[in-house]
Amino acid sequence: MKINIILFSVVSLFLLTTELNAQPQQFTDPSILSFEGGISPATCDSHSKLSVSAEHFKHLNSSLDWKWNAPLAQWSIKQDIGYKPHNPKSKDNAVATFVFFVYSKTPLKDAKLKVEFLKNGRVCSFFEYGLNFTGWRGSWIAFDRDMQGKPEEGMDEMRVTAPATTSGELFFDHIMLSSL
Question: What is the pTM of this model?
Answer without folding.
Answer: 0.81
